[in-house]
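User: Hey, quick favor. My workstation is busy. Could you predict this chain's structure for me?
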Amino acid sequence: MASPEKTHKALTLLKIEGKPGRVYYPLRILSVPTQIPTSTQLLLSPTHLSLNHRDLFLRQHLYPSPSFTTPLLSDACCTVLPHPLQSLPSDHYIHKRVILNPGYGWVSDPDGPEDKAGYRILGGTSTNPVGVAQDVICVESSEVELAPSHLSSAEAAALPLTGLTAWRALVTKSGNAVAGANILITGIGGGVALMALLFAVKMGVKIWVTSGEEAKVTRANGLGAKGGIVYKEEGWEEKLKGMLAGEELDAVIDGAGGDVVDKATRLLKAGGVIISYGMTTGPRLPFSMSAVLKNIELRGSTMGSRKEFRDMVAFVAKEKIRPVVSRVICGGLENLEGIDELFNDMKEGKQFGKLVLEVGQGGEGQKSKL
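Assistant: No problem, here it is.
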């Protein structure tokens, strides 16, 4: 329920005229009602937020159901604040750092969301009223995990959406998250690709990468990739075949689309798998007869279930994995110029890792904002 006398700041989109793909909605600070948490909910104070490509697509009206009142963003590291109706033991969550499950409607089914209403991602749409770019957040206690203690708050904020997407693509969908397998991850530098690399290296998978920049390939090698190639080079797939030294790929994890099926078919073993978690180059992915004859499988993969989120966070904590953070901007929600800089980094593909906004210090001693 809402407390009509209390409001707080939220970062939202400002509606202007323009066609999808041509419009670029400005950011604005909106005053929104402060929710009073129930006995099963937590009151959260975000300290760090991170951007995802869906946030950029929302500003370009290339993502379904954009909202101009729902707070933006899906990823945050938050401090749990006490509130009068709190029913959980006070030492369990109060003053602890937590991260949020970035979507609702999907509990554990490996095939897809159980909820007939579909999967509802946090931030910036009319399908889910919750977004993390606001001063305080009310969520069910069942929708959070304790932030792994080895992570900084910026790293913790960088984890949820990309970590979940990468985990499902690699572990649930690829069927090749095993030591010794050869997997190609395309577009290294993006958050999902980097998390898939970090997970796979810990599992003993041999990872190969592509990127538009040699420097990003070099950095990926430093994180454990066996090697990589710049996809802008003519015939890059033949060069990568040479690096494989007679071996073949077991799987390809891709978020771009385009001609990935054609290129991957030349590198994959018979019965190999292509996992597509996005199509940033366009909404269609041609499937060739060559792929059919080689028994190649194309598997779509989205974010993931609540169970997969829990498993992913546990793996990060156990293996002491650190998400790669490209840049942190300070100044809070009202630093619209700085936030726009982060969006510009994403638009221009400058980032290597996640783009993070610091909005508060968090920690012991914070008081409830109710």
